Request: fold
Amino acid sequence: MRGSKRSKLLIIILFLSPALIFLVVFMFYPFIMNFINSFYKSDGFIESTFIGLDNYRRLINDDTIKIAVKNTYEIMLYVCLFEVGIAIILATMVDSITKGQKFFRTVYFFPIVISATAIGMMFKLVYSYDVGLLNTLMESLGQERRNWITVKSAVKMVSIPIVWQYIGFYFIIILTAIKQIPKDLYESAYLDGINGFTKTIYITLPLIRNVIITCLILAINGVLKVFDMVLVITEGGPLNQSQILGLYMYKKAFADNAFGYAASISVLIVVLGLLTIFIVNKIFKKETITY
Amino acid sequence: MKTSSKIMALILAVSLICVLAVGCGGKEPANENTANVENNNDTEKQQDNNTKADKKVELRIATMFGGTDPSTETFEQSLEDFMNDHPNVKIKNESMTSVGDEFRTKVKTDFSSGNEADITFFYTGADVKAIINSNKVMPYEEIWEKYPEVGKDITDGIKNSVKEFDGKLYALPLTGFYEGLFVNKSMFEEYDLELPTTWEKFQTAVEVLKENDIVPFAGPIAQSHYMIEHFVLSQAGAEGHLDVFEDGIPEEWVTAFNNIKDLYEKDAFAKDSLVMDIEMAQNLFKQEKAAMILEGSWFIGGCEDELKDKMAIIPMPAASDKMDPTSIVAGFSSGYYVSRSSYEDEDKQQAVIDLISYLTSADQIKAIATANGGSPSANVEIEGLHPLYIEGHKMVANAKTLNMPIDSRLTPEAFNVLVKDGVPFIVEGQKTPEEVLETVKETNER
Reply:
């Protein structure tokens, strides 16, 4: 008996150790090093001086950080409302059709396989004043050309491709969850006279609630990592009005050579991410429905 | 669990660990852009060469002559020729394109991790300061004590111009750059305008071109690197341009930024100038939708011959009498570095010296200058260049002062404050030049 227990334990260790090594080497170690670096004035390569909490003091007084935090949460709101929202609508609609489901799955999922940089370039061209698709359309409709990316509209304009790219991802997750709901639940509801929109509101959505929360958490996490799309489309401008945390950290590290300060921004990103997800979990915490 | 399943599980787990171990192995990093130039030629030439009789030596070289750089082909041919002449030397070419920050990051990472190439072609100034401070590159003064012939073809004036903060020379340059005002002559002729050689002519051109629905000036406000250089130079003159705020905020710099604001308010820039990048501004000029652009010598290479025939290059017009009308921004901002570890390696020293001497010889400088159109660092004559290149070289030759760009004197962060958190806010009236320059000063001193 004891030998069997020991061999089971050995198998567990053998199976879990590669993943654990990966996590320690590529996640925990860099994070701890990053946290340590945030107390240094560093060019990231050769020169490094301990400066205590100076980077964090600078973080508190940095006006651009305030704009970046505000914009990051604004994009988070758009992502929760539109990315996950449109995915739910599309998933319920595709679930209700009998023919062509595979076609819609492929079409809606397609943008995810394109790199964010390519999508950024595409949207940059779409918004371009001189050769942009939108202005060409405006002209063909007899309208004046206009600047699509302005101080007021910059965040919204960069949010559109961010939202658009990942709708398909959440669509697939939600559609799969809907498919797991037993058919007899719908059949008995149908006998009770519930159908169409009410069926979605009272049966489908409550039963996939946990999946929707998971999607929201993934979407919120995703926004904290965004930087490439904004870098390509606006570089955080004009006047820093589309600056976001991920991009600001990247610029401080690789354009300004202020790696220590960039490390403190990444600590802020981790703290805000954990805090936001904790709040989301608290808000949506409810008894799980099993079927 | 069945015995066979246990065995399978064990094999799977061990395989995973093996994969991990192999993945983390210490194999020399391979660069995707690396073009390994192998020595296939075993001809026995130049018997008198020092390295010929020596044992096999492998050298690594990292340069910016990779990717789409116009010098790539010439450089790779040079390495092949060198290896043909030195059969015992094998060169591993780790060159990359300089577009983006990847090459900078590669070189700095290599130096900080002790994996530096034997010879590196890299920037001078602020970029290399930390590497010099870490004592990982050789000052040529030390090399010349034993090998006085190294880099002998490069003119003394140019060698002096790339000396670093400690007065020593660490990089031997090949070609230099210059910046100036590129003008579409045919547009100026069409509207009967004189070339903008004075501030008044420049202002008149802006007015007339704007009235005729032509973008007078292709200037990307949020990437205003060249605009900052030239507007400061035209207002503060060559001496004022060198100021790094040691005596406070210079008044001329304030006026220079107000000059940019003034042009912005007069609609001298494109309507989307606040969000356009350098490439978009270049396209505007290349498509002949804009009449003027401030750019560097490398810009010529990207223009079609048909457009080159219509172009002229002149110094930025003087906005005040402090600027000599011939003054330009130009210089030599990159060169070959020899790593200390390679030089001090007895097995490699001779091969490194032979290679650096060969790469900085007049013939090689001429070959690279012919390929990229830059100003050669040696007294050589470049043939077959488009007249626009010759015009550029003449502008350099006529210049009474050649100033290096402002970013060579400010920290990258301070200069980026000027570009990103400065000019766009100034032209939009959200910050004054004084406020911006004060922040730049603080950031530079941080």
